[in-house]
From TrEMBL:
CDD domains: ScCit1-2_like. It holds the Pfam family Citrate_synt. It comes from Steccherinum ochraceum. GO terms for biological process: carbohydrate metabolic process; citrate metabolic process; tricarboxylic acid cycle. This is Citrate synthase.
Amino acid sequence: MSALAFRSVLRQSRASTFSRSARFASSSAKQTTLKERVAELIPVELEKVKAVRAEHGSKAFGPVLVDQLYGGMRGLPALIWDGSVLDAEEGIRFRGKTIPEIQDALPKAPGGSEPLPEGLFWLLVTGEIPTQEQVDALSKDWAARAAIPEFVEELLDRCPPTLHPMSQFSLAVTALNHDSNFAKAYQQGINKKEYWGPVFEDCMDLIAKLPNIAGRIYRNVYGRGKLPAIDPTKDYSWNLTNLLGFAENPAIVELMRLYITIHSDHEGGNVSAHTGKLVGSALSDPFLAFGAALNGLAGPLHGLANQEVLTWLLKMQKAIGENASDEAVREYVWSTLKGGQVVPGYGHAVLRKTDPRYTAQREFALKHLGDDPLFKLVGQVYSIVPDVLLQAGKAKNPWPNVDAHSGVLLNYYGLSEMQFYTVLFGVSRAFGVAAQLIWDRALGAPLERPKSYSTEAIAKIFKNKQ
Ligand SMILES: CC(C)(COP(=O)(O)OP(=O)(O)OC[C@H]1O[C@@H](n2cnc3c(N)ncnc32)[C@H](O)[C@@H]1OP(=O)(O)O)[C@@H](O)C(=O)NCCC(=O)NCCS
């Protein structure tokens, strides 16, 4: 397809988006559901991909350095995902929108000021801002799908409380594959053009069931009594917070809305997002794919860092006391580095500035936390760690990431069990992984299978080259 034809496809897509927005604006018109909207967008997106591949498919896209093969593929252009893009200097944009822009544009709960994650999911999947009615319909739909099978409840109830909450989470999510629409449809010989339909249903079920799984793990592990029922008149984050036992405080419900929104997606290359996509590419159903993604999120260099940050801060507070001097904090940071450990919550594989997800949480804390001693310590650490990491001379990014702040906020509202924090990150990350799985199956993404080389082969290939 020529450049002219591609531009015409883009124009058609924008025009269809515009006419859709116009339709949304009319209160009397029937509100499109998310699934109907995806069905409308699929042919447009297929044409876009076809056009780019026809015009640019045989062109080289950046050099690959041997160091990138050994260095965890940093910066290697290798994946396509339209839902979110991470800029090293600016941070994340969800479908082109910064965090402050989505905080402004997405529908809110009555009386609330943080975006509803339901709206973020709609945005990730379609690239469009949903109406309040569409977001409310998603809340209702997820509430209706929220129950988990009895055998999954029993599975969780039998886990010893000493089993890490993330292992329990991954177990339960994997077990949901028992009722996968996609796995069943595949066994019945579904046409590959129709894969996205049952995958969409599985993704909606997956997101909907996570609060019941997370709530059950929390109550079992920390002895917090019986789970209440889902309230179908309330939004997703209210229900999640209520299942954990904290919904009587509207401030933590608002925090949960912000938390789920900003942790949802961080482009396609991070460990959890990429694992979900990779496993999904084998046509494993969304429960199997997301179970695998959770196992990656459970690593301390990835999602577990939010648990590690609070552990580290509390250890520091114990060692040097409350209201410690900058000098004492600096010494403590150096002792962490000299002990061959990382400073959790600092550094990033892509970002080279303060993570805007950290900033969004700091702004929330400034509004709600007052002079909480741990919040003060987080601010003090922020004024000291980047300097120390720069002096140490190793980390490419000395600035804080998302995990540097989240634990202190949850702890302030009484959710003080650090080992549980990554489960909440996981609930949120399901939104991004699910959006990607829907589009991968809709666009016919192939099995992922990069090529690996032996060190001997690399040495041979470059033997006679300068
Ligand atoms: C996120 C992280 C894994 C990125 O890793 P990366 O892309 O390899 O980062 P860099 O290229 O900057 O790493 C270069 C060196 O600096 C070190 N470094 C990076 N961040 C560091 C930190 N916060 N504290 C101490 N050392 C750090 C690395 O361990 C590496 O050391 P090595 O050469 O001895 O292996 C890393 O910054 C880190 O471990 N941070 C702490 C954990 C964390 O907060 N994870 C959540 C990320 S959202």
